[in-house]
Amino acid sequence: MTKSICLYTFFVIFFTFTSRISAQERTNSSDSVTNNCIANDTIVQLVVEKDAQFQGGDLLKFRKYIATHLRYPTQCIQKNQQGKVLIIFVVNWDGKIKDVAVFKSSGYSELDDEAVKVVSFSPVWTPAKNKNVCVPQQLILPVVFKSLGIINKVP
User: Fold this and answer.
1) Does pLDDT of 126 surpass 60?
2) Please, what is the average pLDDT of the chain?
């Protein structure tokens, strides 16, 4: 009986210690996303020392991501609905996108919704920094929907 209690105590201590190490490893791996920031801040910044970067690039690289993932809604193509949507969003201190919204509408809710959806599903960014402190940065991105017409129109 004493051996089973000692063995049980050993397993409880062992698994508790192992789970703490595992939790620390997960915490340390998420720190690599924040690009070695000495701290983080929760106040959204408009102007920062080092802008947030999308996959090591700049907004041009993010525009390419948008262009490849954006789907022009079929009903909008059929109705020849076009326009420019201004999307406002925040790259949080941990590099995740949050608070995605329409800043200025195209006039068509389908186009607005598609632009919001694509920006919302963006992969993790490298966060903005002020004095090596990761800070949330607010950005505005224009997304243009322009129909090129029906290419293979049957007479």
Assistant:
1) yes
2) 77
Residue 28 CB coordination number (10 Å): 9
Which pTM was predicted? 0.70
Q: What is d(CA 58, CA 65) in angstroms, rounded to the nearest whole number?
A: 11
CA–CA separation, 97 vs 15, rounded Å? Answer: 35
How many CB atoms within 10 Å of residue 136?
Answer: 23
19, 86, 153 from 70: Cα distances, Å:
41, 14, 24
Residues 94, 119 contacting (CB under 8 angstroms): no
Q: Can you give the residue ranges of every domain in the chain?
A: 1-34, 35-145
Q: Which amino acid is at 151?
A: I
Whole-number Å distance between alpha carbons of 70 and 145: 9
CATH code, residues 35-145:
3.30.2420.10
Distances (CA, A) of 122 to 29, 38, 59: 20, 25, 12
- What does DSSP say about strands 39-40 and 133-135: parallel, antiparallel, or unpaired? parallel
Judge contact between 43 and 130, C-beta under 8 A: no
Q: What are 81's strand-pairing partners?
A: none
Contact between residue 90 and residue 66 where contact means Cβ atoms under 8 Å apart: no
